[in-house]
Amino acid sequence: MIKGFFITGTDTEIGKTAVTAGLTALAIAQGVNAVPIKPLAAGQELVDGQWLNDDVQRLHAACGGRFTPAQIGPLQLRTPCAPHIAAKLEGVAIAREPLLAAIRATAALADIAFVEGVGGFRVPLTEGWDTADLAVDLALPVILVVGLRLGCINHALLTAEAVRGRGLTIAGWVANQVDPAMPHVADNLAALRAAFDGEFSAPCLGHVPRLCYPSSAAVAAHLRLPPSLELK
């Protein structure tokens, strides 16, 4: 068993990596030995002769470079698309047990791991295994990143129901302002708070505004750690 949290989201491109980096930076600043892990990362660019994934590099920076990119991102694919498609195009096998072993090996190097999923909660990885199964295999409480845009309440509650349906607990949720022009933000946040407080007993861990420079420290300034971690 590893200690930590599984970071999922209401969709792809809604700020999971930014929030994972922010939570990691916040935990480290509060004296917690934390590591971010992105088990599968699709999309690399060739930089100075090295193939790099932007999300993995961002998480690497968030922990001050104390863990290697290979430890943070054990399976990195070059094609920027769904991981099962990228793996097929590149002739790479996404193997369940080796990937779980890599996650656990990195998590064992820290007190707390923030494990980031791919896309939304149910993204196929290989036949018969998706990111929801990955979360169940790791048996970690879930932090849900809600991308604030039209339709976010429906997406958030459906995802929360799916998480609970897998027998997992929701440790908290983060509102991330993906649409800076979204109308009625306060009303949407109020509806989300009411639903998560009442139906899921999950606290809001922050509202991240649209930031010009979303560094891990800048994001961390708008977050708080889950109550279960604050007590440690």
UniProtKB/TrEMBL annotation:
Pathway: Cofactor biosynthesis; biotin biosynthesis; biotin from 7,8-diaminononanoate: step 1/2. Its main location: cytoplasm. Mg(2+) binds at residues 17, 55, 116. ATP binds at residues 55, 116-119, 176-177, 209-211. SUPFAM superfamilies: P-loop containing nucleoside triphosphate hydrolases. GO terms for molecular function: dethiobiotin synthase activity. Keywords: ATP-binding, Biotin biosynthesis, Cytoplasm, Ligase, Magnesium, Metal-binding, Nucleotide-binding. Its cofactor is Mg(2+). It catalyses: (7R,8S)-7,8-diammoniononanoate + CO2 + ATP = (4R,5S)-dethiobiotin + ADP + phosphate + 3 H(+). The active site is at 38. The keyword ATP-binding applies. Homodimer. Catalyzes a mechanistically unusual reaction, the ATP-dependent insertion of CO2 between the N7 and N8 nitrogen atoms of 7,8-diaminopelargonic acid (DAPA, also called 7,8-diammoniononanoate) to form a ureido ring. This is ATP-dependent dethiobiotin synthetase BioD. It comes from Roseateles violae. The gene is bioD.
